[in-house]
Amino acid sequence: MARTVRETDFSALTLLQRGKVRDMYDLGDAYLMVATDRMSAFDVVLPDPIPDKGVVLTQISLYWFDIMASLVDNHVITADVSSYPESCRPYAAELEGRSILVKKARPLPVECVVRGYITGSGWKSYQKDGTVCGIRLPDNLVESQQLPEPIFTPSTKEELGKHDINIDFDEMTKRIGAPLANKVKELSLDIYKKGARIASEKGIIIADTKFEFGLMDDEVILIDEVLTPDSSRFWPEATYAPGGPQKSFDKQYLRDYLLTLDWDKTPPGPVLPQEVIDNTRARYVEALTRLSGKTHGL
């Protein structure tokens, strides 16, 4: 039975912020991060949620946080709702499966993007001048082709409703300093390579992804979400064929549908047909079950 939470309303808790997908509550010593079923595309939150999407995002992130713990610490305290503070108990049913109690890290003001394949905005940039974020790539690449080595292509982290802007590594260094920039670049590439290797064993190509890091007692930790269908492009290996767009387990299917509409990518977003909602949900759930081997009751 699909469950839908478009927006949380936990009146006894202090709402810190609403993002495109996540609602954050300040519990004093920790944050409560709740993944809703809101769906954004082209930086616009659409009017229709995707049932269970928040559960999928949370469970995939928890899967990866555990796997990547040998590479870098993360912000997870617990996802066991019964261990949450007493103030959260009235909302246990809504929090189950889609929430994490997390440490109060200080987020870095950059997105850490890793690309293993040439697609999306990277493909558009490459077509213009053969580069992506200042990195010169080999000649004659085709759309969706695997790169010789994954590349690190950071971006800014803009306010809700604004597009993040791709920047080169030098600009990132100016913004956060060389030691920190080098650290998160190395971590991003290591996490991507490990994740891509594991996903490949499950029949999934992770074409590209973005990570967020924060500082906790001056130590870099991994925060937000990790290698999910919202933060990454997931392609089925069985149908992969370089030279054009790929089938996907992520929201690219939804983006492709939206591109067929007469919509200028500004709010409000268009209402989605039930078929598109159902198909998008199915792709997210399949990504979770392929990776974790569990359905989590979905």
TrEMBL record:
Pathway: Purine metabolism; IMP biosynthesis via de novo pathway; 5-amino-1-(5-phospho-D-ribosyl)imidazole-4-carboxamide from 5-amino-1-(5-phospho-D-ribosyl)imidazole-4-carboxylate: step 1/2. It catalyses: 5-amino-1-(5-phospho-D-ribosyl)imidazole-4-carboxylate + L-aspartate + ATP = (2S)-2-[5-amino-1-(5-phospho-beta-D-ribosyl)imidazole-4-carboxamido]succinate + ADP + phosphate + 2 H(+). One of its GO terms (biological process) is 'de novo' IMP biosynthetic process. InterPro entries: SAICAR_synt/ADE2_N, SAICAR_synth, SAICAR_synthetase_CS. Keywords: ATP-binding, Ligase, Nucleotide-binding, Purine biosynthesis. GO terms for cellular component: cytoplasm. CDD domains: SAICAR_synt_Sc (cd01414). Its EC number is 6.3.2.6. Signal peptide: none annotated. Residues 16-266 form the SAICAR synthetase/ADE2 N-terminal domain. It is an enzyme of class 6 (ligase). One of its GO terms (molecular function) is phosphoribosylaminoimidazolesuccinocarboxamide synthase activity. NCBIfam families: PRK13961.1, purC. Belongs to the SAICAR synthetase family. This is Phosphoribosylaminoimidazole-succinocarboxamide synthase.
